[in-house]
Structures are given as structure tokens and as C-alpha cells.
């Protein structure tokens, strides 16, 4: 198995910021296989689950990956797969459980890369079973904050790979859900077409 990383999230909807995060990981890290894992129910969003169906989110992710190849045609070849393991597992989606399932499924012995934006680092040590999680992953963190000061909030005991892109993409799925018309430019072409055809987030 190639050096493997996962990128999780609600993806409600997947947007250009997510694709830019993937682009950063593909171009600025040594990881070669990326597993995209949509959450069934985020641990940090227990009061509000995904707005659209699991099927719609999975369909949008697959369409977004087609757009990714159009948006970043010069990115090196990487194996990018979508897994519904958290959706199938049901309940609260804990990253630690998913990491262990990926390790077991793919026979991974080394640390699994955990790709995220730096907007997540301030609460990293609050994640479920963080002390166990930090021993089996490398946090692959892409800077999204313009001034970069969030690096200072990283837990000192985490194994971290910092990715410093030349530009940033701070798009928010929350803004898209709240006002699609104003923020539809945050969506890639195929995803926007899907959202319109299926009348999502309106």
C-alpha cells in the first residue's frame, strides 16, 4: 500500500476549499493514496447533522473529484478513493475509529496521514481518544489562516507535517448552506450543477 492519508469531513456540501486542501496534500506532501471519508455525524456537530442525504453527499464528492482533475490538471498522479465506512458504521463518526478501520482494512503499519486545514488545530487535543490517535497518525495540516498564527496552538506532542501553500482557500460549507445563491462560486462546476438539479440547500 502506498503512503496513505485520509481526509474526513461532513462535506455538506464538498466545496472548492476541500478540493484545494486535497490539492495541497497531493502537491506538498509525500502521500500517494488519499481516502475521502464523509462523516455520518460529526462529533463536533452533534446538534445538527448533515442537511442533505448521505447519497447526495457521496454523489457530490465523486463529482467534485472529477472537477478536481479539471481544476488541477498538473497535479501529480495520486490514488484518490471515497469510502462510506463512517456512513455504514452509523452514529457519531469518531476519527480514531476510522483510522483504526483503515489501518486494519489496508494493512497499514506506519502512521496514517490525517489531512486537515489549520482551522482545526485549536481543538485538536479535544478529539475523541486524542492520546491514542496521536500515536497512529501524522497530522497533515494545510494553512488556511492568512496570518498563520494558528500554528502556535498545535499540541506539542503531535506529529505534524505543515503544508504552506502560496495561496489560501477559506471557503465555508456553512456559508453555502445559509445562502447558496450568494456563495455558489464556492462550488465546483459539476457539484453546483448537481445542487441545482436536485434543488439542494435552497
Provide a descriptive summary of the structure in words.
The protein has 202 residues and is an alpha/beta fold. It has a six-stranded parallel sheet with strand order 3-2-1-4-5-6, with helices on both faces. 35% of the residues lie in helices and 16% in strands. The protein has a single domain, classed as 3-Layer(aba) Sandwich (Rossmann fold), CATH 3.40.50. The mean pLDDT is 92.
Name the strands of the widest sheet in spatial order. 3-2-1-4-5-6
The number of distinct helices, counting runs of at least 4 residues, comes to 8
**Would you identify the CATH H-level superfamily?**
HUPs
Number of E strands: 6
Q: What is the annotated CATH architecture?
A: 3-Layer(aba) Sandwich
Structural class: alpha/beta
**First-to-last CA distance:** 42 Å
Task: Using the CA coordinates, give the radius of gyration.
Answer: 16 Å
Biggest beta sheet summary: 6 strands, parallel
Task: Give a summary of the structure in a few sentences.
35% of the residues lie in helices and 16% in strands.
Amino acid at each position: 500500500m502506498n503512503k496513505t492519508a485520509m481526509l474526513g469531513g461532513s462535506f455538506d456540501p464538498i466545496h472548492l476549499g476541500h478540493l484545494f486542501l486535497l490539492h495541497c496534500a497531493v502537491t506538498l506532501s509525500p502521500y500517494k493514496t488519499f481516502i475521502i471519508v464523509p462523516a455520518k455525524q460529526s462529533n463536533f456537530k452533534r446538534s445538527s447533522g448533515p442537511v442533505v442525504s448521505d447519497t447526495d453527499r457521496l454523489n457530490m464528492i465523486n463529482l467534485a473529484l472529477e472537477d478536481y482533475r479539471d481544476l488541477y490538471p498538473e497535479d501529480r498522479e495520486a490514488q484518490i478513493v471515497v469510502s462510506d465506512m463512517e456512513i455504514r458504521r452509523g452514529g457519531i463518526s469518531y476519527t480514531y475509529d476510522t483510522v483504526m478501520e483503515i489501518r486494519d482494512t489496508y494493512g497499514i503499519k506506519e502512521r496514517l496521514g490525517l489531512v486537515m486545514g489549520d482551522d482545526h488545530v485549536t481543538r485538536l487535543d479535544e478529539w475523541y481518544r486524542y492520546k491514542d490517535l496521536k500515536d497512529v497518525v501524522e497530522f497533515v495540516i494545510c494553512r488556511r489562516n492568512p496570518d498563520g498564527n494558528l500554528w502556535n496552538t498545535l499540541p506539542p506532542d503531535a506529529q505534524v507535517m505543515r503544508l504552506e501553500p502560496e495561496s489560501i482557500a477559506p471557503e465555508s460549507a456553512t456559508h453555502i448552506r445559509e445562502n447558496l445563491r450568494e456563495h455558489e462560486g464556492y462550488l465546483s462546476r459539476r457539484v453546483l450543477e448537481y445542487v441545482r438539479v436536485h434543488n439542494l440547500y435552497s
